Amino acid sequence: MYHYVDDEPPPAGPYADGLTVRTPDFVEELEYLAENGYQAVRLSDVYLAMAGLKELPAKSVALTFDDGGLDNYTVAFPLLKQYGFTATFFVITKTVGRDGQMSWEQLQEMVAAGMSVQSHSVSHPDLRGVSDEKLRSELVDSRQAITEAVGELGYAFCYPSGACDERVVEAVRSAGYVMAVVTDKGEVLNPGAIFEIRRGRVQAHMSLGSFAKLVD
């Protein structure tokens, strides 16, 4: 999982530095995947594989980006196309179109090029601490906004900050999603944990050796 990809972190506070993979490092990571025979798969393919309905390539990887930063469009998207990879972009629908964030028009272009856009909630709260009404709104309204804006069915959810509990997981299921991803916890490709799928975090300044271990 990625957040930002750029030569410098966005002006979003000191935390952004640790979430920004520098462009040369991202290129090196894509080159590693391409040269070692990895195929990028969509999260819908992951879902079908977990349901026993599809077999994934032996060396497959699902690339995801959180938060909807503009650099995802200006930097990551062209490089993904250059190397022939697809990815899923989890956006916070309330911030789409704001300064430093991707617009719906840009997201439409990305979907037309084979990328996927899915929900990271409406406003990125810790869903464990909101009311039932607010929880449902964050899930349902973001899903509807994405479907209406880019024409893609909202089937996957990304918990803000990876935080969830039993109530939140059940709400995600009830809102119509069929899968959800977390960050460093959860499980990988366990059909019994399809709403807590773990992702490997690509860190800023991560060595290529560490990246290789993450995906191998």
Please describe the structure with a list of short key phrases separated by commas or semicolons.
single chain, two-stranded parallel ribbon, globular, 3-stranded parallel β-sheet, alpha/beta, 216 residues
CATH domain class name: Alpha Beta
Question: What overall form do the CA principal axes indicate?
Answer: globular
Output the number of helix runs. 8
Low-confidence stretches: none
Strand-pairing-aware structural class = alpha/beta
| Helix and strand pattern | EHEHEHEEHEHEHEHEH
Strand composition percent? 5-15%
In short:
The chain has 8 helices and 9 strands. The model has no long low-confidence stretch (mean pLDDT 93). Helix content is 38%, strand content 12%.
